[in-house]
């Protein structure tokens, strides 16, 4: 059962579940909520303390559920509200908390609010951002103009992402009240918090729409269409409401890699935590960059989120590890011993590699499809369009997991994850301890975690071939990772 603790998330390892591809309970080829419930014992055995569920609400699924058409129900392909209630109860009984994705920046154009706004109904007229003429040069993050003409209203509406995702007008106070009712519904059900999707993109400043975004090297710089004046005040209102319920967690996706910008959305009545994409979205393995970012986040006083995979990026096993299991073990060692709140992505403990994109038929993601269609319209060849789409697609980490194929073996990566999760539970220094010495010497990365009563040292040889010398006299080895030519990872208790 769950214990009350307002800072529980600082002691917890999260596991992201991309609902459509996690576990299929009925054989239709699509993950669902009963499938998630069936894996609760698996997650408990691993030592996971909380799960994050991606959107499972009714939706046309243009953007895999991030285009919500009804915030108060469950999409029929994923189950029912009763299935959600059973899942939540099963998770809580297993000591696992549940946070759910919440999309408050935009809705589906199939949402009732948008349909009534298109009809110019008085209450809903200003629920979205309408203009008679295109007021700026803003581009969608999915390519092309962010303005779409609506024949019914004879006006343009704004969409930061796909044209089927109309952005809400947060300059209208009614939107905040509507969103509070949405949050209330799920809080009353007992969810433990929310992951707020692209929350720094809320449109709160009418004056910003008069300014064009600058362009550089043929690409637009998104300056005025995010982090607008008034966004943090809106986040503060949401935070104040959510935290009227005790023991809740508010996590934000901040679409920015600047540390100061990310940090400006946390603490002081704002978000409890925000994703740190400066580290998490590393394109290729670079331990010098890793060490640099660890030092920078510590100097800034940030308790970062730690992750290298999610539903929006290629899997770390392919992107960073070259599909080398020994490298994956070292990445797991860092994720679960460094300072911060770890977020594991479904299947990384197996480990799973990227799903292959062989043809345009494999492009299920809106961003990839938009990119493909854009280049075809520009007269590019099929090969050129597919190559461009592959660079922008987010299908790589979204393939359905076939759990029957994955059998645990002795010395497996999952076994290591279990061991590391157990170490975190047993040692307060690994959960909430501050950093001591941090050093990178060649490929050898060393850092200390200092708790109230203990100091733990972690040494990782990212060369995968080097030997690590024994720890200082009197140290207690807590965990070793052995590579082909010797020890490549070591966790030891110094005092």
Question: What's the gist of this structure?
Answer:
The protein has 495 residues and is of the alpha/beta class.
Task: Characterise the protein shown here.
The chain has 495 residues and is an alpha/beta fold. The protein has one domain (8-104, 174-432): TIM Barrel, CATH 3.20.20.80. Helix content is 29%, strand content 18%. It has 16 helices and 20 strands. It has helices spanning 19-22, 33-38, 40-46, 81-93, 112-118, 173-189, 231-242, 259-263, 277-280, 287-299, 316-319, 325-335, 366-377, 382-392, 413-426, 428-432, and strands at 14-17, 50-53, 97-102, 106-108, 130-131, 147-150, 155-158, 165-167, 193-196, 215-216, 219-220, 249-252, 273-274, 305-306, 341-345, 434-441, 444-450, 455-461, 476-483, 486-493. The strands form five sheets. Strands 13-12-9-3-2-1-15-14 form an eight-stranded parallel beta sheet. Strands 16-17-18-20-19 form a five-stranded antiparallel beta sheet. Helix 6 runs parallel beside helix 7, helix 12 runs parallel beside helix 15 and helix 13 packs antiparallel against helix 14 (382-392). Mean pLDDT is 91; it is low at 465-473.
């Amino acid at each position: 059962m769950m214990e009350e603790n307002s800072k529980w998330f600082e002691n917890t390892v999260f596991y992201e579940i991309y609902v459509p591809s996690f576990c299929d309970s009925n054989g239709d080829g699509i993950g669902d909520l009963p499938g998630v419930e069936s894996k609760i014992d698996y997650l408990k055995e691993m030592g996971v303390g909380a799960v994050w569920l991606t959107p499972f609400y009714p939706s046309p699924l243009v953007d895999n559920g991030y285009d919500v058409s009804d915030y108060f129900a469950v999409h029929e392909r994923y189950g029912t509200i009763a299935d959600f209630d059973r899942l939540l109860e099963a998770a809580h009984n297993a000591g696992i908390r549940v946070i759910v994705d919440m999309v408050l920046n935009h809705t589906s154009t199939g949402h009732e609010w948008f349909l009534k706004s298109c009809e110019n109904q008085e209450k809903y007229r200003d629920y979205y951002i309408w203009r008679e003429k295109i007021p700026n040069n803003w581009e969608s993050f999915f390519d092309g103009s962010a303005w779409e003409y609506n024949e019914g209203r004879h006006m343009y509406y704004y969409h930061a992402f796909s044209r089927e995702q109309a952005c809400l007008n947060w300059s209208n106070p009614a939107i905040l009240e509507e969103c509070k009712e949405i949050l209330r519904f799920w809080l009353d059900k007992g969810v433990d918090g929310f992951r707020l999707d692209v929350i720094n993109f809320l449109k709160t400043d009418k004056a910003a729409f008069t300014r064009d975004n600058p362009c550089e090297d043929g690409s637009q710089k998104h300056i005025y269409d995010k982090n607008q004046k008034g966004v943090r005040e809106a986040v503060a209102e949401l935070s104040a409401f959510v935290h009227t319920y005790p023991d809740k967690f508010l996590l934000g996706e901040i679409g920015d890699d600047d540390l100061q910008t990310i940090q400006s959305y946390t603490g002081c009545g704002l978000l409890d935590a925000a994703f740190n994409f400066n580290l998490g979205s590393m394109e290729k393995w670079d331990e010098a960059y890793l060490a640099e970012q660890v030092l920078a986040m510590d100097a800034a006083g940030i308790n970062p989120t730690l992750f290298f995979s999610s539903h929006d990026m290629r899997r770390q096993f392919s992107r960073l590890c070259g599909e080398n299991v020994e490298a994956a073990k070292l990445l797991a060692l860092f994720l679960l011993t460094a300072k911060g709140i770890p977020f594991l992505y479904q299947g990384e403990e197996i480990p799973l590699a990227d799903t292959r994109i062989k043809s345009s038929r494999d492009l299920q993601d809106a961003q990839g499809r938009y990119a493909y269609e854009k280049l075809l319209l520009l007269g590019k060849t099929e090969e050129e369009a597919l190559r461009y789409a592959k660079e922008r697609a987010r299908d790589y980490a979204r393939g359905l997991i076939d759990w029957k194929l994955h059998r645990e073996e002795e010395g497996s990566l999952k076994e290591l994850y279990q061991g590391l999760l157990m170490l975190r539970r047993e040692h307060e220094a690994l959960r909430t301890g501050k950093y001591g010495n941090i050093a990178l010497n060649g490929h050898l990365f060393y850092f200390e975690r200092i708790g109230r009563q203990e100091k733990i040292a972690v040494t990782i040889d990212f060369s995968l071939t080097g030997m690590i010398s024994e720890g200082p006299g009197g140290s207690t080895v807590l965990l070793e990772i052995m590579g082909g030519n010797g020890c490549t990872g070591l966790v030891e208790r110094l005092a």
